[in-house]
Amino acid sequence: QLQLVESGGGLVQPGKSLRLSCATSGFTLDYYVIGWFRQAPGLEREGVGCISSDGRSTNYPDSVKGRFTISRDNAKNTVYLQMNSLKPEDTAVYYCAAIGGRGRCYLGYARYEYWGQGTQVTVSS
């Protein structure tokens, strides 16, 4: 079925942290590049990080660099997004997505083929 399911979202105060999980099934994770994306009202979908199929390389936009970290555990079929020093502008629905093939990752959402349903993150005092 090649499914991805996000979890871990919620309400958090500015400056605090959350860790999101992306549980995958139906495919061999070490043959796929994984990206994390977010969608806020009135804004375009934005890539917030990605990780290569072997976990040896990552990529982040300037908006989250130094605050967000992606990791993967292929044996557990799970990818994580650690979010620190959260800001109100981080409020969005967060999605994980996959591209088939062994290689490096990309932040543009158009190339990703398989998507989860998303989890809401709200940063507010």
Quickly describe the structure.
The chain is built from no helices and eleven strands. The chain has 125 residues and is mainly beta.
Supply the key terms.
125 residues, mainly beta, 11 strands, globular
Described by the principal axes of the CA atoms, the overall outline is: globular
Contiguous runs where pLDDT drops below 50 for at least 5 residues? none
State Rg: 13 Å
Structural class assignment? mainly beta
- Approximately what portion of the residues adopt beta-strand conformation? over 45%
Number of helices: 0
Main β-sheet, in a few words?
Answer: 7 strands, mixed
> What is the CA–CA distance across the termini?
40 Å
Q: Give a count of the beta strands, DSSP E runs of length 2 or more.
A: 11
Task: Describe the secondary structure blueprint for this structure.
Elements (H helix, E strand, L loop, with lengths): L2 E5 L2 E3 L5 E8 L6 E8 L6 E6 L6 E2 L8 E6 L4 E6 L8 E9 L13 E2 L3 E5 L2
Parallel strand pairs: 2-11
Antiparallel strand pairs: 1-3, 3-8, 4-5, 4-9, 5-6, 7-8, 9-10, 9-11
Architecture overview:
This protein is mainly β. The chain contains no helices and 11 strands. The chain has strands at 3-7, 10-12, 18-25, 32-39, 46-51, 58-59, 68-73, 78-83, 92-100, 114-115, 119-123. Strands 2, 4, 5, 6, 9, 10 and 11 form a 7-stranded mixed sheet that branches. A 4-stranded antiparallel sheet has the order 1-3-8-7, with no helix packed on it. Strand 7 (68-73) and strand 8 (78-83) form a beta hairpin. It is globular and about 40 Å long.
